[in-house]
Amino acid sequence: MYTTLISAADLAGHIDNPSWVIVDCRHDLMNLAAGREAYAAGHLPHALFADIETELSGAKRGADGVFRGRHPLPVRADLVETLRSWGIDDDSQVVAYDAHGGMFAARLWWMLRWVGHPAVAVLDGGLAAWQAAGLALSTAPQSPRSGTITERAPLVTTVSAADVLDNIKGGKRVVIDARAADRFRGENETIDPVGGHIPGAKNHFFKDNLEPDGRFKDAAQLKAELAPLVGKPQDAIMQCGSGVTACHNLLALEVAGLPGAALYPGSWSEWCADPARPVATGT
């Protein structure tokens, strides 16, 4: 069972295994059609496509009309139905990949763990690593059978905006923001309507988890860099712009042997939508 990362060579050895499900998570926040277009132009053999906006996210507003963020979590039962439509069973090995250092694949990795499925890994180095190994892509359409995955107890934890606000008022949990340093400081904000960060948060840009070739740093290096930042992982909260790249930091923590941190799914996009919530800028 692969539960964090898998190499291109190891995946190639199982590429025709019918109990393995490969999911292409390529996406572009500024061009929502780009991921599907890239998939159509060439994808890993047997891979299916996951749409971040429609399949790996839920309604942006709750039943009360309150904005939940740009990529809120779907209802768990709805996610399970999506996973079944991809042919995923309880004993399937799932592999997610993208072409962005794992920033979108890690979202699916975390979401499968959220519905209690441990056998999920991210292709280390993504599409580039696959191609660098001389492995072929496919343009063949996929017609998955119906899967039988069931909803089980989550293997991960989440916190709400209210939890984060209470923590600001006197909690002891560390909040880690996965966005680039300039956006964290409140500069060059082009996605959300307000620049800045949650007061008291620390910044760890998700791309700092990677080597120059797009593969994750090894476990020892990740632990050396992340352990001083998060302290006790079970007391740490991971967030980002909309709950996507925070999952990259959560994956890095898992690789480092520092499991247990929580995700704030709404992240900055939900937080800054309410003017009553405090905002900090600078470092």
TrEMBL record:
PROSITE patterns cross-referenced by the UniProt entry: RHODANESE_2 (PS00683), RHODANESE_3 (PS50206)
Keyword Glycoprotein: no
Record-linked Gene3D superfamilies: Rhodanese-like domain (3.40.250.10)
Cross-referenced InterPro entries: Rhodanese-like_dom, Rhodanese-like_dom_sf, Thiosulphate_STrfase_CS, TST/MPST-like
Keyword list, A-Z: Repeat, Transferase
Keyword Repeat: yes
UniProt domain Rhodanese: residue ranges: 16-139, 169-280
One of the Pfam families matching this protein, by short name: Rhodanese
Protein name, per record: Sulfurtransferase
